[in-house]
Each structure stands twice: as structure tokens, then as C-alpha cells.
């Protein structure tokens, strides 16, 4: 457990902001022991998440919506998963790919083709992962005595990891593609 001073040193968030964030429900209130308040790993993780969201340009209102979607029972490692996803995430669930590409000077036809590639491969990944869950994960869960509700919770927790894995795989593939293209051009 950390004192408020130790928490501010560790996270770089001022005491005033820690109190403000707690009053807005972005971080839990401190654990009280007598007249003193103490902070644990959950406070650290949530403060780091708030700072990262601010660094990505999220408004206070958007941060509140984002944090509200995280269950109060989330562990620091659950919150760390959210942090790991922030690099590729814009905060917008409904991204207008054709509109964004058209705004960059790409023809509407090419922009729509890109959107269709994303949609098709997204469906394919979802179908293949669903098959793995159905044939490999669910039997293992059932054998261990888990309920269908526990499987649903697992799948809910799997989604952020899946997104991060897809983004990482895409980034690696595009870097490899660019390197191949560059080496061909250099010949």
C-alpha cells in the first residue's frame, strides 16, 4: 500500500488530480486506515490508464466513458491489457475507413476496397477463433467444471488480447511487406 505522496511519485499524477479523479470515479477512493488513505496496485493501474488516455487526446468525458466500461472487479493486469491496446486504438469503435481514406486523397473505390478487405478478414478471424473456442477451449472448460457463463466471461476477456494480437500481426506483416518491396526496388 502506498501513501498519497508515494502514489504521486510513482505515477507522476499530482495529489490534487488523484483526488479529482477519485471524485469523478476514474479511480477508487483510497483505502482508509484511521485518518490516513492508502493506495494499492489498482489505483496505480487506473491512474496510468487515465494518463495514457489523456496522452491519446481523450477528453475527460471520453475517459469517464472508457473507464466506466471497465468492471470494478478488473485486476491491475486486466487494466494493463487496456493500456497495451491504446497504441493502436483511436477510441472510436465505428471507424469510417472509406471516409478516412477518401479524406487522404484515396479514390472512393479504393477506399471501399480496403474497407471490404478489413471486414472480410475480420469475419474470417472471428470464425476461425470461434471454431477453436468451440472445439478446443470449451471442452477443456467443461472438463474442468466451468459454466457457460464463465466461458462467456473468458471470451469477453479474450477480445482485447485478440485485437492486440491482430494489430501486432498486421504491423509485422506490413513491415515485412515494405522491407520486401524496398529490397526489390534496390535491385
TrEMBL record:
SMART domains per UniProt: HTH_MERR
Domain HTH merR-type intervals: 1-69
Keyword Zinc applies: no
Classification via Pfam families: MerR_1
GO molecular function annotations of the record: DNA binding; DNA-binding transcription factor activity
Keyword Coiled coil: no
UniProtKB keywords: DNA-binding
Domain of life: Bacteria
Protein name per UniProt: MerR family transcriptional regulator
Amino acid at each position: 500500500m502506498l501513501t498519497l505522496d508515494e502514489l504521486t511519485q510513482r505515477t507522476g499524477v499530482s495529489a490534487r488530480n488523484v483526488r479529482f479523479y477519485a471524485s469523478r470515479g476514474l479511480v477508487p477512493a483510497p483505502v482508509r486506515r484511521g485518518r490516513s488513505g492508502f493506495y494499492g496496485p489498482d489505483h496505480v493501474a487506473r491512474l496510468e490508464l487515465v494518463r495514457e488516455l489523456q496522452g491519446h487526446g481523450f477528453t475527460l468525458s471520453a475517459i469517464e466513458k472508457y473507464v466506466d466500461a471497465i468492471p470494478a472487479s478488473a485486476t491491475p493486469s486486466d487494466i494493463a491489457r487496456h493500456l497495451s491496446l491504446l497504441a493502436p486504438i483511436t477510441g472510436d469503435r465505428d471507424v469510417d475507413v472509406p471516409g478516412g481514406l477518401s479524406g487522404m486523397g484515396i479514390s472512393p473505390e479504393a477506399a471501399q476496397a480496403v474497407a471490404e478487405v478489413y471486414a472480410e478478414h475480420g469475419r474470417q478471424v472471428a470464425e476461425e477463433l470461434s471454431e477453436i473456442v468451440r472445439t478446443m477451449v470449451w471442452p477443456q472448460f467443461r472438463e474442468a467444471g466451468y459454466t457457460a457463463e464463465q466461458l462467456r466471461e473468458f471470451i469477453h476477456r479474450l477480445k482485447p488480447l485478440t485485437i492486440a494480437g491482430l494489430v501486432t500481426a498486421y504491423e509485422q506483416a506490413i513491415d515485412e511487406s515494405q522491407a520486401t518491396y524496398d529490397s526489390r526496388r534496390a535491385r
